[in-house]
Predict the 3D structure of the following.
Amino acid sequence: LAKGDGRFTFRFYTRELTAAATDRLQMETALRKAIDNNELSLNYQPIVDPDSGQAQHIEALLRWHNPYLGQVPPDRFIPLAEATSLILPIGEWVLKKACQDMRQLIDEGHPLKRVSVNISSLQVQRCDLPVLVGRILRETGLSPEHLDLEITETVLMDEPDKVLESLNQLKALGVTLTVDDFGTGYSSLSYLKRFPIDTLKIDQSFVRDIPHDQDDEAIAKAIIAMARSLRLGIIAEGVETQQQRSFLMQEDCERAQGYFYSRPVPFTKLLEYLTDKQTV
Ligand code: C2E
Ligand code: MG
Ligand code: MG
Ligand code: MG
């Protein structure tokens, strides 16, 4: 840290370091060891038929519990993992774990179509994602049609040619692609034509204030209609209330995800949810 040694330099640097920078450094040091120390885990949130609540897909959501820092929310550590490239090994861990768990669910006969895994833009840019995904599918024995990758609109903005090639290769493997947080990232819709996208996930900011906000309702309706005419799948995220559920059913939205149905839960809890909902 303070290279020139001697207490003076050290004190100088300590004073200069803001509390935030110290926190960040502490967190980075801890995050570097998180995989080896078994501090990472996955929660799963069902993606359901809005009417019946039957799970059709699940989304894997990363959790980090550190003995000193406690439970650190993804919104805090994912940006740090991206800034430090730690998202590359962490993202690989997530993919592998999600594929293993999904393989188990399929083997046990749960009628789930896919598991969705969040992919950071750095993974698309910096690692050979098609090779990595191909290897993990082989190692875990999961069929590609059971894996869905969630990317954000920002991924489609950087180096479009390279990204296009990468996404085409992923599609060739047989996995599906979802645009997460749809509507928040990019103003041009032309990428929907250009990239091999299967599903749009409406960002939760457009769902949150339904039915009170007319504009959000209009936007959600428009996205659902657009997805339908482009023959894309559609998921509404952040569904918390009965009124939002009714709205989505009325608009014939294919799938929904949110606390109204289930929070993201550990694997064992997911099994309970699946058993409850699937046998009725
Ligand atoms: P996301 O992929 O858009 O995930 C949805 C987030 O909304 C999750 O937060 C989920 O817990 C939360 N959520 C679900 N239903 C509701 C609801 O009804 N109401 C509200 N208020 N929130 C709801 P979480 O798990 O904290 O994750 C936050 C973000 O962190 C994710 O947003 C994703 O961008 C990122 N993330 C999580 N896991 C991974 C991962 O494995 N890799 C990468 N690269 N990013 C991840
Ligand atoms: Mg997501
Ligand atoms: Mg989202
Ligand atoms: Mg998000």
Remarks:
- Residues 59, 118, 150, 180 surround magnesium ion (ligand 2) (CB under 6 Å).
- Residues 36 and 42 are 15 Å apart (CA to CA).
